[in-house]
Specification:
Layout lengths: L1 E7 L5 H10 L5 E5 L5 E5 L4 E5 L8 E10 H9 L5 E2 L1 H9 L9 E2 L1 H9 L9 H19 L2
Parallel strand pairs: 6-7
Antiparallel strand pairs: 1-2, 1-5, 2-3, 3-4
Helix pairs in contact: 2-4
Length: about 150
């Protein structure tokens, strides 16, 4: 089962614009796209980790396939935190003032998805840096298979 991530690029709210500006990225949010098409992430709008129906074909999202990660393993890791609170202070500490701190029982979107993918130091990823890392690892993985 192919792992897919969706990165939010629409204008959105003031918070979306601040995240994009602060991270120098076109993306302000990331969702793990489950095999059933629903999104799985930590959402500042809902205030928690949740599963949600989202139209990823609306033009507001860039969807990236992650062939090097097993989707079921990532979903299992992420779903362990279903319902946990959104970590607003963690976002500010890690990406606004660069304290690299996060709360063990709260999550922000890119941190949760990086954790699900098994990446080290998941709290250090913004949506934009996660997209760049995933694209790099996908390209690197494909190059390794072709050698």
């Amino acid at each position: 089962m192919t792992t897919r991530l969706a990165f939010y690029k629409a204008p959105g709210t003031l918070t979306d614009r601040l995240i994009r500006w602060g991270s120098n990225s076109p993306y302000s949010h990331v969702e793990f796209v489950r095999p059933d098409g629903r999104g799985l992430s930590a959402s500042i709008r809902e205030g928690c980790v949740r599963v949600k129906e989202i139209d990823f074909t609306s033009g507001h999202w860039d969807v990236i396939e992650v062939p090097w990660q097993d989707a079921e393993l990532a979903i299992d890791r992420i779903m362990q935190h279903d319902g946990k609170a959104y970590d607003t202070w963690g976002v500010l500490a890690c990406h606004v003032v660069s304290l690299a701190r996060s709360h063990p029982d709260k999550w922000f979107c890119s941190e949760l998805i990086a954790y699900g993918l098994g990446l080290p130091n998941p709290h250090l990823y913004s949506p934009g840096s996660l997209a760049a890392t995933v694209q790099h690892l996908t390209t690197f993985s494909a190059a390794q298979r072709n050698t």
